[in-house]
Amino acid sequence: MTTVRTLFNTATTMSEGGRGQALRRIAILALVCVLPLALRDYQLSLVTTALIAALGALALTLVTGFVGLVTAGNSALLALGAYGAAIGAVQLELPFLVVLVGSVLVGAVVGLLAGLPALRVSGIYLAIATLALHFILIFVFNEYQTRAVGSAGFFLPTASIGGLLIDNAIKWYAVLVVVVLATWRLVENLKRSKFGRAWMLIRDTPLAAASQGISLPAYKLAAFVVSSAIISMSGTFLAYFQQAVYIENFTLELAIQYIAMVIIGGMGSSGGAIAGACFVVLLPPMLSRAIALLPSDAVVAGFLQQNLGDFQLIIYGTLVVVFLVWRPDGLAGLGQRVAALRLPSRKGAR
Amino acid sequence: MNGPLLEVRSLTVSYGGDSVAVDGVDLVVREGEVCLVLGANGAGKTSLLRGIGGFASSEPGRVRGGRVTFAGADVTGLSPRAMARRGLVLVPEEAKVFASLTVDENLRAVPMSGGRAARRALVDEVTAMFPFIAERLSLPAGQLSGGERQLLGIARSLLLKPRLLMVDEASLGLSPIAVEMVFDMLRSVVASWGTTLLVVEQNVRAAQSISDNAYVLETGSVVLSGPAGDVLGSERVRQTYLGLEM
Amino acid sequence: MLTLLLGALTLSAIYALVGFAWVLLRRTNGILNLATGAQLAIGAFIFNQFATSWQLPWPVVVLGTLATVAALGGVTHWVVFKKLSGQPEFALVVATLGLASALKGVSSLIWGTEARVMREPVPSQVVTFGDQATTTLYGLCGLGAAVLVFAAAHTFFKFSTVGIRMRAAAENPVLSAQGGIAVDWVYVLGWAMALTVAAIAGIMYAYQTALSFHGVEALGMRGLAPALIGGLTSVRGVIPGALIVGLAETFGTKVFGGSFQDVAAWIVILVVLLIRPQGLFGDKQVQRV
């Protein structure tokens, strides 16, 4: 059985060929351009939702994939960005871009405050601190929402950039494609930087990292702060995109969904994180469609349709465990394996 | 001469990655003999013993190649527990006892075989061999001296009725008097129990008195082997391992 | 005032039980089990299935619940965590999160999400001490259960051979295996015991409030607070930890209102992380890596 540890080692030693890289870029670009032409509005906004989730998954890859830390605070940080948007847009009537920058900053600060005490000790204390962060932030936002507007939540104005309203599916799609690609670039660059190398050393051999004079708490904290800022930003995007913010959305199960994206996609692979996000977001509507194909009088179909939410929880949870046990390299690893089968001459996946 | 109890053929041990800690080691220990493994730090002595005695699935170490035959059966890659139950028992180098448990609890934690009376008799026999045990029964093992900890580790392993006892660096960190005490004990175990011993040791002077055969390891491979007297008398060993002491 | 203190005490008893479940798994199996909340709720729902839905006689209810929950614990080790042995710690924690999600889905699928009232062996009643101090019968039952569990655990770990082997395996699993101890069965037992105690806590809590997945799960998660105060691996440290959390929650709710119940324990956790992350009453120092 391949363990996470050995997998990481092979993943880090593997370098992608320059030609393959270029080909992949062209393929991605083509896909990005074709999608809005091929899809209907509803489908396109599903893709946009997946893109917003991909932001969070990319951020989580940084923390869980590169450094090997568990955080349960994804949902709370999303809520932070979303409520930041609600306060900024509704209460303070600030423009979209200002709110966006604000949520990045607030996310970073909250990440710093939550990570600082926990990461002094050891990795798993971050899981504890972020759990506390989750329950406290959700409590605070809930109280705030109840006092400000009541249980229905906030309704947000249409986002606009420099006077241009982002008011339809294609515009949202375009904005988020740019943001996701930029974030992807950022994460990939970080992975190759001095930080990235230190992070992976910390993850694989913490003692060796410490003996090389790498300050473990500082590097872990840096990863968590950057990641918190990105997740908070994606929360703001989510709020403006849905034009609504209410507390019931931000559950611990949502935080687990984000972890599922990273695990299913393949830990430590940013491309895998995006694939994982698409998988997790698009699974429910696809399941729904699949169930609709069943004969409508079947008892099973009704039962499945009614309990879709429960099945989601079961599927995500089970997939997390199954991927951890059988395929710690996730979809990214599966993809590499398939690619290796197709192109036996290329030396790649092992 | 007795037949081989332990037969190791081209054993290779690695801790993940491409590097190996033990690289194709051959080694034979005959029933009733005392076999000594020498080598500098990092030569792969501990890895050799761990490779023979088995790795837990939670550890990164794995037997990558070769064959370990014990008492006629192939035991390559079995778990440490399976090895212990077959009578292949290791007293490890680092933690030999459970520091948070009392001396008594350290002994009680050993799952012994046989009926109640037989178990009782064995415990009595072993405690009689180690007089300090009776005096320190309720003391946490973490508070014992280094020599006592070593002896308690040996006592625990004796409760498993070992056919082959592997002792890793018994003298490490002990005072000369404690080293003498430990080796006296090993000598009497061999004499009265007929236990076969495989000993890894850097303190050559302490070990040479009880050894029959010796192997010298360097960077994971055997570079010299033979009767203990010949090996320890060789130029190579005298220079590298005895030079500082004599 | 006395009533309030009594309330804090009975609440602390529940927290002590939950904290025990957290600490036992952390110490014996080396896992920070973030599925504790879901497992607490599942345990209570299994009990409810035997007691309320099937209306079985009480001895059958108790034995059936114990057997089911313990078996569930064993399965958890063999099916999931045995396969993950040797993987880095964070992978284990992530797996518990996956488990939490799956368990919640299963529970919701079988039992729904509405709050339920459980069948009671004896009618609930108010117990009065002296002039004004009052508490409920089931509050006292919870207190009794906690005392019983801690006394039983103390006896088990101190005097029984199996208990001693569990402590040995907790300290050093590799040395235990080399000494012939069946470490996998220790882990199975660790899961079974933790889930059983968690179920007891969930049941006692449900009798004092109501049985709802969300309520019992949230309690289970908050039980991390007493465990953390005790240093995550000290069973004894859980008791002062539970008292602190019980008092903080009782008086916090009194001062700030009912919804403060949801966050009191988490604020305690943040404070502990700030001042002494290795716990206020821990046995050992945590490794700094």
UniProtKB/TrEMBL annotation, chain A:
Species assigned in the record: Acrocarpospora macrocephala
Protein name (Swiss-Prot/TrEMBL): Branched-chain amino acid ABC transporter permease
The keyword tRNA processing belongs to this UniProt entry's keyword annotation: no
Coiled-coil region: none
Listed GO MF terms: branched-chain amino acid transmembrane transporter activity
Main location: membrane
Superkingdom as given in the UniProt entry: Bacteria
Mode of membrane association: Multi-pass membrane protein
Location within or outside the cell: Cell membrane
Keyword terms, alphabetized: Cell membrane, Membrane, Transmembrane, Transmembrane helix
Record keyword Cell membrane present: yes
Cellular-component GO terms for this entry: plasma membrane
Record field: transmembrane: 22-39, 51-82, 94-116, 122-141, 148-166, 172-187, 221-243, 255-283
PANTHER family, per database record: ABC TRANSPORTER PERMEASE PROTEIN (PTHR30482:SF5), HIGH-AFFINITY BRANCHED-CHAIN AMINO ACID TRANSPORT SYSTEM PERMEASE (PTHR30482)
TrEMBL record, chain B:
InterPro entries xrefs: AAA+_ATPase (IPR003593), ABC_transporter-like_ATP-bd (IPR003439), ABC_transporter-like_CS (IPR017871), BCAA_Transport_ATP-bd_LivF (IPR052156), P-loop_NTPase (IPR027417)
Stored SMART domains: AAA
Gene3D superfamilies for this protein: P-loop containing nucleotide triphosphate hydrolases (3.40.50.300)
Family: Belongs to the ABC transporter superfamily.
Keywords of the record: Amino-acid transport, ATP-binding, Nucleotide-binding, Transport
Keyword Nucleotide-binding recorded: yes
Organism listed in the record: Acrocarpospora macrocephala
PROSITE patterns per UniProt: ABC_TRANSPORTER_1, ABC_TRANSPORTER_2
Superkingdom field: Bacteria
One example of a Gene Ontology biological process annotation: L-amino acid transport
Record-given protein name: ABC transporter ATP-binding protein
SUPFAM superfamilies on file: P-loop containing nucleoside triphosphate hydrolases
Pfam families found in the cross-reference section: ABC_tran
Domain ABC transporter: residue ranges: 6-244
UniProtKB/TrEMBL annotation, chain C:
Keywords of the record: Amino-acid transport, Cell membrane, Membrane, Transmembrane, Transmembrane helix, Transport
Protein name stated in the entry: Branched-chain amino acid ABC transporter permease
Transmembrane segments: 6-25, 32-50, 56-81, 90-111, 137-157, 185-207, 227-248, 255-275
UniProt KW Transmembrane helix keyword: yes
Presence of the UniProt keyword NAD in the record: no
GO MF, one example: transmembrane transporter activity
InterPro entries per record: ABC_transp_permease (IPR001851), BCAA_transport_permease (IPR052157)
Annotated membrane topology: Multi-pass membrane protein
GO cellular component: plasma membrane
Lineage: Bacteria, Bacillati, Actinomycetota, Actinomycetes, Streptosporangiales
Similarity annotation: Belongs to the binding-protein-dependent transport system permease family. LivHM subfamily.
Signal sequence, renumbered to the chain: none
Entry's localization field: Cell membrane
GO biological process, one term: amino acid transport
Chief location category: membrane
